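Folding Query — how this chain folds
Tokens — whole-number codes for backbone shape
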Amino acid sequence: MMEFLAELSSWEIYAIVCGLLGTAGVLLGAIARKKFAMAASLLPLIAIAMTTPVTERIVIPYLTQRYPVVFANKELPKKIDQQITLKKIDLTDRIYSYFYDLDLDDDWFDAPLVKSAQISDLCDFLLPKFDSGEASLANYIYQFKGKDYSFSVDSSDCS
């Protein structure tokens, strides 16, 4: 149910939160107007004014924690450098997969060499995910001139 919210744009999430809070304010205002005459007009405004802090401090952090891949993919594709673009991130059965496009002038690409050059940084990033049980493996898939080159990293690579 909540994943569909994570897939929405930021302004759509704000709009939904605003609508829910505004509706709650109208309902509470209608109930409270018997005791407080201003409640019917004041409570909906207060509820709507709470939209930004509620969205930024509660809703977005909750969705980001619960659906990290959905939020990460919202910012993609992303240029890593002049030659590498991160296209997509996937998480299935505790296996992260990172998909890259390479824009190289030559035909040389050596996935094991890339892995050995990056293993320290990759382990710094992945070890907390492995230790927490969030991930058991990470695949790095590079698409270059119609071919896929890949390597995997697991906790044994980070020992």
About this structure: The helical segments are 3-6, 10-32, 39-49, 51-66, 68-74, 111-132.
